[in-house]
Design a protein that fits this description.
Layout: E1 2-7, E2 27-28, E3 31-32, H1 33-43, E4 48-53, H2 57-66, E5 73-77, H3 83-90, E6 100-104, E7 107-109, H4 113-121, E8 127-132, E9 140-142, E10 148-151, H5 160-166, E11 172-182, H6 198-207, E12 212-216, E13 222-224, H7 228-247, E14 257-261, E15 269-274, E16 279-284, H8 298-311, E17 319-323, E18 328-332, H9 339-345, H10 349-371, H11 387-406, H12 413-428, E19 433-436, E20 445-448, E21 451-454, E22 461-464, H13 465-473, H14 482-497, H15 504-531, H16 542-553, H17 562-581
Parallel strand pairs: 1-4, 1-6, 4-5, 8-12
Antiparallel strand pairs: 2-3, 6-11, 7-13, 8-11, 9-10, 9-11, 14-15, 15-16, 16-18, 17-18, 19-22, 20-21
Helix pairs in contact: 3-6, 10-13, 10-14, 11-12, 11-15, 12-15, 13-15, 15-16, 16-17
Length: about 575
């Protein structure tokens, strides 16, 4: 048994990732897809394999050259892509008198290739197409004997002889898996043109009365990785069983069911993976196909910081499995209850304060324990919260994303720069520096069995605890009463003083100004998410954030921020009318 693996495609649906790595070398559980396919063919009894190449062919050739397979694996470079039919004909000298198994280089499957080959040997027809019921692309028409009658894909117009057959009530539609076994005689049906399709070859054969046999395989795993979503889905399928074995070593393996769960303001996707007794959460970041990464990605930061915090015994979800290339992280499932929902459901001030006492204790642990051994090279934005970051990522963000884009105000950043410089200097004066979460608010605090856990720590860096405390207290998702904010602030200073000397007035001075910088960031984010990302749900919290900005500005010297104070007051008056018209 010999095999041809088709690997000459350009991978256009996977751009931009295929600019640097060919699709067959995309890893699944740390092993290139091409390697998975070759190993499956070897286990099926294959004695020699040919791999056709074109796009980034040198990478595929180098990969195969560096492997020591148990059988010969050769490559055939196509200077011009020949199509599936042309690729088959181009290696006619590789054939012998036995049938050839041909498999697409971008499919992931557990189909028994040895059984496929044996099935082909047992019937008289020159070709076998392995078929599967996959409704999104069921375009191969078969009769009750599983003989292929034709193809009705949008890019392959149905011929009249096929149309008549397809209209028979017994016809069914299935998906071609990209696996086929063909006899040498099919070569005569491939045209002598620079490029040809195997589907056109089968059409011609069917028209002339030659049988193309279907081999239907139910209850199998099969996916192609032609798009980023399809690739990440396959990567998750490979990672999930290992993650469950690691997380729940005393629980027998079981079927894993995946359901989407609500996301946040980022572009990440979230999935809950469940068995009958256990569950994990998958955070799906973007694919990182850079050949030589020069900086961490969001996924890198999430993995490194998350594992560090867990080692430091900070209450964060444990990460069980992660894959850098696919950007998938599998972590502990903390349930669906956020601090936000606890606070909004409670009408008891004493109970609310008790929850915030726990939140403050978590924050202090995060800041102090998280700072021990923290490596700033893990951060994917900036290593620390400094003046440059405040000016660019908070103040400029507020002006451009909120004032200009969302509110349509013609105000330039430079006009407010003197006040922004003063704001940044005051925020950092008296700062108590530790590990800074940067988004420590009620939606990023999970509650499980009465215990609080911090999530979404991937933007962490060195910075003032006052900023995270401000994030917690001016949180527009819960809109805490001002008096309660001050009570929680006093409690935070008291608890932090148990661990280190705290100069109360300096601490509060920094906190008051961090409230403003955080408030500017919140409004910038809400404007960006609403206008640029189309996530309209965030706009509901803009009035609360504007009200909080006015409150925060009232707690500092109005002489330091006269323009910003006037803008905030104008926003307070204008926002109701604005929300009625957007």
């Amino acid at each position: 048994m010999k095999a041809l693996i088709l690997c000459a495609g350009l991978g256009t649906r996977l751009l931009p990732h295929t600019r640097h790595i060919p699709k067959p070398l995309f890893p699944l559980d740390g092993m290139p897809l091409l390697d998975h396919t070759i190993q499956r063919l070897i286990r099926a009894g294959c004695r020699e394999i040919m791999v056709n190449t074109h796009h980034l062919h040198h990478m595929i050739e180098a990969f195969i050259a560096n492997k020591q397979y148990a059988i010969p694996v050769r490559t055939c470079f196509e200077p011009r892509i020949l199509g599936t039919g042309g690729a088959i004909k181009n290696i006619r000298d590789f054939w012998d008198n036995a049938p050839l198994i041909v498999i697409n280089g971008d499919i992931v499957t557990d189909i028994d290739l040895g059984s496929v080959y044996i099935f082909h040997l047992k019937h008289e027809h020159p070709a076998t197409l392995v078929l599967h019921n996959y409704p999104p692309v069921n375009t191969v028409v078969v009769n009750t004997e599983q003989m292929v009658l034709g193809f009705d894909s949008a890019d392959s117009p149905v011929r009249s002889i096929e149309q008549a057959e397809m209209q028979r009530s017994s016809a069914a539609r299935l998906t071609f898996t990209g696996i086929q076994v063909i006899d040498p005689e099919v070569l005569s049906w491939i045209p002598d043109t620079p490029e040809s399709s195997s589907i056109d070859m089968y059409r011609a054969m069917i028209q002339h009365g030659l049988g193309v046999q279907g081999y239907v395989v139910p209850n199998i795993y099969w996916k192609d990785i032609g798009t980023p979503a399809q690739y990440q889905s396959a990567a998750l399928d490979f990672l999930a069983p290992r993650a469950f074995r690691k997380a729940f070593p005393d629980t027998p393996s079981a079927s894993i069911h995946t359901i989407p769960i609500a996301g946040d303001g980022s572009d990440r996707l979230w999935r809950r993976l469940s068995t009958s007794s256990n569950s994990l959460i998958a955070a799906i970041h973007g694919i990182d196909s850079r050949p030589q990464p020069d900086s961490p990605t969001e996924a890198d930061a999430y993995i490194a910081i998350g594992r560090h915090l867990h080692r430091q015994r900070v209450a964060v979800p444990q990460i069980f499995m992660a894959d850098r290339f696919s950007g998938i992280v599998l972590a502990e499932d903390l349930g669906d209850t956020h601090l936000q929902s606890i606070i909004l459901k409670s009408g008891n001030p004493t109970a609310i304060f008790a929850e915030y006492q726990k939140a403050v204790q978590l924050l202090i642990q995060l800041s102090t324990s998280g700072a021990h051994g923290f490596d700033t090279s893990w951060t994917y934005q900036t290593p620390e919260y400094d003046k440059a970051m405040i000016l660019e990522k908070e103040c400029r963000y507020f002006v451009e994303a909120f004032l200009q884009e969302y509110m349509q105000m013609s105000l330039h950043f430079k006009v407010l720069l003197p006040e922004f410089n003063r704001l940044a200097d005051n925020a950092l004066e008296g700062a108590v520096t530790g590990f800074m979460h940067r988004d420590f608010q009620s939606r990023n605090i999970m509650v499980k069995d009465g215990r609080l856990f911090a999530i979404d720590f991937q933007a962490g860096r060195k910075g003032p605890i006052q900023y995270d405390l401000a994030s917690l207290l001016i949180d527009p998702y819960v809109n805490l009463d001002p008096e309660l904010q001050e009570t929680i602030l006093a409690y935070g200073i008291q608890e932090l003083s148990r661990q280190m000397p705290v100069h109360r007035s300096s601490f509060i001075h920094s906190y008051r100004h961090c409230r403003i910088t955080r408030n500017l960031q919140i409004l910038g984010a809400f404007g960006f998410l609403t206008k640029s990302k189309g996530k309209s749900g965030f706009s509901a919290y803009i009035p609360s954030a504007i009200h909080m900005l006015n409150q925060s500005l009232s707690q500092v010297s109005s002489q330091d921020f006269p323009q910003l104070t006037r803008i905030a007051a104008h926003l307070q008056q204008d926002i109701s009318l604005h929300h009625e018209t957007v």
